[in-house]
Design brief:
This protein has 179 residues and is an alpha+beta fold. It contains three helices and eleven strands. The mean pLDDT is 87.
């Protein structure tokens, strides 16, 4: 978890939002890169008015879940999504029990594999020993809203992830955009 830079393109209306999406978005990474390379000069030249906001040295929020004699039927809730410990055959938002170290690794894997909208693309998880660290994918203050809870046989670092910052904010209006 290192320092990151957040770049936000603010716009005045939905038409500009759709325009910016057409300029920058592609489901192909290389194509998106070429679109970004072409789109930035359009904003700087005033063809596409926008306010560009940079958050320098932004930090991702994180929190921990520590397992202690964890058993099947215990649950861990991340961002409102319940992960249930089972004896074997875990599927979906379930994870298999083992030693606390093995169970922590299984929980982290279940979080990373989750397709739940409140998890996928929003958080990642790693484990070290009996501790699972949940980290917001996107740096900034919103990561501090990720909730953490455990039903029994362990603890969480707090009710929410912490430490997410937007960094030092700077913004520039390009060609008089009043965004």
């Amino acid at each position: 978890m290192g320092l990151k830079t957040i770049m936000v393109f603010d716009h005045q209306n939905n038409e500009q939002a759709n325009d910016l999406q057409r300029i920058f978005y592609s489901d192909n990474r290389q194509s998106s890169g070429f679109k970004l390379e072409d789109g930035i000069p359009q904003i700087i030249s005033g063809i596409r008015p926008a306010k560009v906001i940079l958050g320098l040295n932004a930090v991702q929020a994180s929190g921990t879940v520590t397992l202690t004699s964890h058993i099947a039927t215990n649950t861990v809730t991340i961002n409102g999504v319940v992960f249930t410990c089972v004896a074997s055959g875990a599927t979906g938002n379930q994870y298999n029990v083992g030693t606390d170290t093995v169970t922590a690794a299984n929980l982290a894997a279940a979080i990373n594999a989750s397709v739940s909208a409140a998890i996928a693309g929003l958080v990642t998880a790693t484990s070290s020993g009996t501790v699972v660290t949940i980290t917001a994918v996107t740096p900034g203050l919103l990561g501090n809203l990720i909730t953490l809870a455990i039903s029994a046989n362990g603890s969480v670092s707090g009710a929410n992830a912490t430490g997410g910052t937007q960094g030092s904010i700077t913004s520039t209006n390009y060609y008089g955009s009043a965004v």
